[in-house]
Design brief:
With 349 residues, the chain is of the alpha/beta class. The chain has two domains: 5-158 and 312-344, Medium-chain alcohol dehydrogenases, catalytic domain (Quinone Oxidoreductase, Chain A, domain 1); 162-285, NAD(P)-binding Rossmann-like Domain (Rossmann fold, 3-Layer(aba) Sandwich), CATH 3.40.50.720. Helix content is 26%, strand content 28%. It has eleven helices and 18 strands. Strand 11, helix 5 and strand 12 form a beta-alpha-beta unit. Helix 4 (159-171) crosses helix 5 and helix 4 crosses helix 9. The longest helix is centred in the last third of the chain and has 14 residues, at 291-304. Its cofactor is Zn(2+).
């Protein structure tokens, strides 16, 4: 690579994600920074786009970002500030940062209420704008949250999934109690469990994959398969997005219980509405995260528990192998081995 190009992993079409050379991310304009990417996590949404997309990747120019495929994937990003545009304060060259990947339109009603994660024309790094599976990415400076210097850059790359978990836990604020069950022992489910345990909540995890359950038990959690007897719980977090995940969550809720739903099923889910009615279960969705109430607390948690958080990382691959060693693995029979696979882009620690 020279000073004008960089390597990137880009979505061109369903089943067509390529490692290729592209122009280097542009110099930052007013209010922008350029980030030298250290690590980028692979997410279930990346796998869905790879296997079955396009879902969020636009094939026509996106109304907010104006970009369309091919798009550089990756939204769970850590890296160092490489260049700073005019009218940016609070950041210095070389700062380790994580990025809030949301690109709201700033014109719709939710944006006007400050609920930018619910934007009706929401853009997203790694989906509708070039993301972090590349050497550099240029973004609004407001996206960046600095990370304390003692936090390894690979742990910092967990900030986005932990922010999603923080938002889930906030969605349950009115019903928080001493006991909770989490459906799905992937990265979001384990992050949610770690946050709840840090608050003193008794947590149990449920998953179909024996290796994920073993991982949860290694982290000190009670865990079992859906067919096991788990009893009923006042608070249920559905993090799997798997077929049957919502029905399982409904079955685990005790009368008057609260279900927080963050998993995104690949197809519409069937659920026993009678069970919801007769037990007066309350269901609330949880969509992504916000910067101040979610991403910054997530960084704080990682700074306080870097070793514990690092145990969620179950695979690391170089950028050149992001497809064969990352997406293909997460789409294949060995996906149950993994909570979080990180792609090493430019990490130096």
């Amino acid at each position: 690579m020279n000073q004008t190009t960089m390597s990137a992993v880009r979505w061109h079409g369903r089943g067509d994600v390529r490692y290729e050379t592209v122009p280097r991310a542009s110099s930052p304009g007013p209010g922008e920074i350029r980030v030298h990417v250290a690590w980028c996590g692979l997410c279930g949404s990346d796998v869905h786009e790879y296997l079955h997309g396009p879902f969020q990747v636009p094939v026509q120019p996106h109304p907010t970002t104006k970009q369309s495929a091919p798009i550089t994937l990756g939204h769970e990003i850590s890296g160092w500030v490489d260049a700073i545009g005019p009218r940016v304060s609070g950041l210095r060259h070389g700062d380790l940062v994580v990025l809030n990947a949301l690109l709201p339109c700033e014109r719709c009603a939710p944006c006007g209420r400050g609920e930018v994660h619910l934007c009706t024309a929401l853009g997203h790094l790694g989906m509708s704008a070039d993301g972090g599976l590349a050497g550099f990415v240029t973004v609004p400076a407001a996206m960046a949250v600095p990370v304390p210097s003692h936090v390894p850059s690979e742990v910092a790359a967990l900030a986005e999934p932990f922010a999603v978990a923080v938002h889930m836990v906030r969605q349950a604020a009115a019903a928080r109690g001493p006991r909770a069950v989490v459906v799905g022992a992937g990265a979001i489910g384990l992050a949610t469990a770690l946050l709840l345990r840090a608050e003193g909540t008794e947590v149990r995890l449920v998953d179909v994959a024996g290796l994920r359950l073993a991982h949860a038990r290694e982290l000190g959690f009670a865990a079992g398969k859906p067919e096991d007897d788990h009893g009923s719980w006042p608070l249920v977090f559905e993090c799997s997005g798997a077929e049957g995940g919502l029905s399982l969550a409904v079955g685990l809720g005790e009368p008057g219980g609260l279900l927080v739903l963050a998993g995104l099923p690949a197809a519409p889910a069937r659920v026993d509405a009678a069970a919801i009615v007769l037990r007066e279960l309350r269901l609330v969705g949880s969509m992504s995260h916000l910067v101040e109430p979610d991403l910054r607390p997530a960084v704080d948690f990682l700074a306080a528990h870097p070793g514990e958080a690092a145990r969620l990382i179950t695979g690391r691959v170089p950028l050149a192998d992001a497809v064969s060693g990352g997406l293909d693995v997460l789409a294949g029979p060995d996906r149950g081995r993994h909570a979080k696979v990180l792609v090493r882009v430019g990490a130096r620690d």
